[in-house]
Amino acid sequence: MKFVAFERNTQGTGASRRLRVTGRAPGIVYGAGSQPQMIELDHNALWHAMQKEAFHSSILDMEVAGQTSKVLLRDVQYHPYKQQILHVDFQRIDDKTRIHMKVPLHFEGLEKSPAVVTEGCTVTPLLHELDVVCMPSQLPEHISVDLSGLTSKSVLTLLQAVKLPAGIKVAIHGSNKNPSLVSIKLPDVIPDEAPAEGAEAPAAAPAKPAGKKK
After folding, report:
1. How do the domains of the chain map onto residue ranges?
2. pTM for the complete prediction?
């Protein structure tokens, strides 16, 4: 994806506030052995770009003053209750240096799986993204997980179900090095209260005799 940014000559809280009033969002670009560069972006264009998954997980082409460079989105600060971006950070990419990035997981084929079609299970993803380490040229926009063969008895773990592209390594945090990817819940069984075919319905209780009128 490509986006356009502009050089920013002012900094500080007051300057950033005035910039936002004009419909711009302040930002900074750092990394790749260069000095940090202050930038500003059209807020509405940036907001719409933020709604796309690829803007968060892929290498971006940033154009500033006619020069294009490769960057990654690293941090976004949002207003607590307004639909407003307060500040955005980008990192320059060196083609010869490995990068650490979160890549989204795409679960595919679930609607065709036996777990859903024949067993009526509820399947809930437990992981939505993976931390990966790779060269910039090898970074995938997402990693697909095939759920078309899933059953209620399936045990779907990271090492079992995820086929990583060449050159990609996953950074696992915590003690569990092979976490589960989904939770599979069988449907609740509702007991049938109707009498079975051929069975006699329970006899109605005899009516109580009416009391004598005084």
Report:
1. 2-92, 99-185
2. 0.78
